[in-house]
């Protein structure tokens, strides 16, 4: 019986813990490692050092005498700017930025691209600490005239107080259709900072699908998902561009993290306590029905929509630290698939095969036979959805990747930024 604990090794030496006690049959093991693959560039960024939006200059290519210079931000001479700084400009009388060129003091150009709404230009990688940069911005006024402006600014020294972050997505992996993008923070992001942080968390999908972010109450996690499960075959590219982002508590983001992953075929597992059976669907067609034994009344399984978070062909459940001595044991387990942080798994349980399909005897896990456990383990991916219904306990928010255990309207209510009807599109 595991507790609700998510302590684990985060790449970059981040360790997170939580203390909400929930019943589960598995051990209180470490979380899967976060992605920190050394990629700091935006996977969707172009190789160009200029904005991806260009507007032809209908003049000779030089500002007209009556076209005042535009105002660039950061302002000329600004010092101590965060390495997360974006470039923006104000065109006198209104207009549209058409080009941004950013160069470091050594003359090296910085790649980046314009946000889709035109509000700013985002470097494809964090700027360097303690470095001088020059931004040259070109824009077109409402009357067609060309405006230009230049600003030279200096970034801040590397701060001492940083916030840890992680990304539960591994570059190049294939996941199930319910795989949320999971960002994690230690300590949590204060509510007043979440909008600024969310603006720096970029997700793009191919084919395009709308989506939104949802923050858990304590700000330690944010999930990104679409209104429905991802389309099979989708490519998801993520950049958490948080290096150097300033927070109100005096901390700064530690690193940029990025990953590009694929979504595989559609597979769903649906467990009904009334029948004590699991129905397995592949591409919406029922392919097998399995007998199960769920948690007994004193240690019930959670009802709700969960996601396979990790898979272990062989493991050991060690629950000797449980407060209730009746729930302490050490047991070797085969074909284990974690679905909650609280210790609930789908796994083979040969000792309960005689009552599977008729009686609940587990410590909260979904027990299946050895043969069915082996078969199911070979079919599933991390990110496959598991829905359990009819038990005595409801799934607690945050006990696992619970992004799908709420309606779309409930999900978008947890966004720190407004979400258009149907979901937000990509930033670029």
UniProtKB/TrEMBL annotation:
Swiss-Prot/TrEMBL keywords: Acyltransferase, Cell shape, Cell wall biogenesis/degradation, Lipoprotein, Peptidoglycan synthesis, Signal, Transferase
Compositional bias of kind Low complexity: 40-60
GO terms (BP aspect): cell wall organization; peptidoglycan-protein cross-linking; regulation of cell shape
Gene Ontology molecular function, alphabetical: acyltransferase activity; peptidoglycan L,D-transpeptidase activity
One Pfam family recorded for the sequence: YkuD
Residue span, L,D-TPase catalytic domain: 267-389
Signal peptide bounds: 1-23
Active site: 347, 365
Recorded metabolic or biological pathway in which this protein acts: Cell wall biogenesis; peptidoglycan biosynthesis
Top-level division of the source organism's lineage: Bacteria
Xref: Gene3D superfamilies: 2.60.40.3710, 2.60.40.3780, L,D-transpeptidase catalytic domain-like
Region (Disordered): 34-90
PROSITE patterns per UniProt: LD_TPASE, PROKAR_LIPOPROTEIN
GO cellular component: extracellular region
Cross-referenced InterPro entries: Big_10 (IPR041280), LD-transpeptidase (IPR050979), LD_TPept_cat_dom (IPR005490), Transpep_catalytic_dom (IPR038063)
Name the record gives this protein: Lipoprotein-anchoring transpeptidase ErfK/SrfK
Organism encoding this protein: Micromonospora viridifaciens
Classification of source organism: Bacteria, Bacillati, Actinomycetota, Actinomycetes, Micromonosporales
């Amino acid at each position: 019986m595991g507790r609700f604990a998510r302590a684990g090794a985060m790449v970059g030496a981040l360790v997170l813990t939580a203390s909400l006690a929930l019943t589960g049959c598995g051990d209180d093991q470490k979380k899967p490692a976060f992605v920190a693959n050394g990629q700091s560039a935006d996977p969707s960024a172009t190789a160009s050092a200029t904005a991806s939006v260009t507007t032809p200059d209908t003049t000779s290519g030089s500002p007209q005498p009556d076209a005042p210079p535009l105002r660039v931000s950061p302002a000329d001479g600004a010092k101590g700017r965060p390495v997360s700084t974006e470039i923006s400009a104000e065109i006198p009388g209104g207009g549209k930025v058409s080009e941004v060129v950013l160069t470091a003091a050594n003359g090296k150009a910085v790649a980046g691209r314009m946000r889709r709404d035109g509000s700013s230009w985002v470097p494809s990688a964090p700027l360097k600490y303690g470095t001088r940069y020059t931004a040259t911005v070109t824009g077109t006024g409402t009357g067609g005239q060309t405006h230009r402006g230049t600003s030279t600014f200096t970034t801040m020294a590397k701060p001492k107080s940083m916030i840890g972050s992680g990304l539960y997505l591994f570059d190049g992996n294939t996941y199930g259709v319910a795989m949320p993008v999971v960002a994690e923070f230690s300590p949590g992001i204060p509510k007043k900072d979440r909008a600024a942080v969310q603006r720096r968390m970029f997700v793009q999908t191919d084919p395009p699908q709308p989506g939104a972010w949802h923050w858990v109450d304590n700000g330690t996690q944010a999930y990104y998902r679409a209104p429905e499960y991802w389309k099979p075959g989708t490519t998801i590219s993520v950049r958490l561009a948080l290096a150097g982002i300033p927070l109100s508590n005096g901390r700064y983001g530690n690193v940029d993290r990025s990953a590009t992953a694929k979504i595989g075929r559609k597979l769903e597992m649906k467990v009904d306590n009334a029948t004590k059976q699991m129905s397995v669907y592949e591409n919406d067609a029922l392919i097998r029905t399995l007998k199960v034994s769920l948690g007994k009344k004193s240690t019930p399984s959670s009802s709700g929509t969960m996601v396979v978070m990790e898979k272990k062909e062989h493991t050991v459940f060690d629950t000797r630290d449980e407060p209730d001595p009746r729930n302490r044991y050490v047991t070797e387990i085969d074909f284990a698939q974690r679905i909650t942080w609280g210790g609930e798994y789908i796994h083979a349980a040969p000792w309960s095969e005689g009552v599977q399909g008729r009686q609940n005897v587990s410590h909260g896990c979904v027990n299946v036979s050895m043969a069915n456990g082996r078969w199911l383990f070979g079919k599933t991916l991390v990110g496959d959805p598991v829905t359990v219904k009819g038990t005595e306990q409801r799934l607690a928010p945050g006990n696992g990747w619970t992004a799908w255990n709420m309606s779309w309207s409930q999900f978008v209510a947890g966004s720190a930024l407004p979400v258009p009807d149907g979901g937000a599109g990509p930033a670029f």
